[in-house]
Specification:
Elements (H helix, E strand, L loop, with lengths): L1 H29 L3 H25 L6 H24 L12
Helix pairs in contact: 1-2, 2-3
């Protein structure tokens, strides 16, 4: 009984996350501004993390949890880099010199 409910809800979650990913992917491609694309990328990466989490529950393993952390780190770094690029046009501050 528990296995049947787990399969039902896992399948339902994967379907809903798939629909959410397709909608986010549409906004990522069609987005009128770069800021819309950044937000859509964040949403798509969050949905991918959820999909990997559900797959981890389905296969009853914790081997996929490291990949969720990797996706989160890459998503964070890319969002910050793109936001800094939009804000000032530079990702890295090349004029800052270290004082010895």
């Amino acid at each position: 009984m528990i296995q049947a409910m787990t399969n039902f809800f896992s399948t339902g979650a994967l379907i809903l996350f798939g629909i959410a990913f397709i909608i986010g992917l549409f906004r990522l491609i069609k987005g009128p501004t770069t800021a819309d694309r950044v937000v859509a990328f964040d949403a798509a990466s969050a949905v991918i993390m959820c999909i990997v989490g559900v797959v981890s529950v389905i296969y009853d393993t914790d081997a996929y949890l490291d990949s969720i952390m990797l996706i989160a780190i890459i998503s964070f770094v890319s969002s910050v880099s793109i936001s800094r690029f939009i804000g000032g046009g530079r990702v890295f501050n090349g004029t800052h010199k270290k004082r010895h």
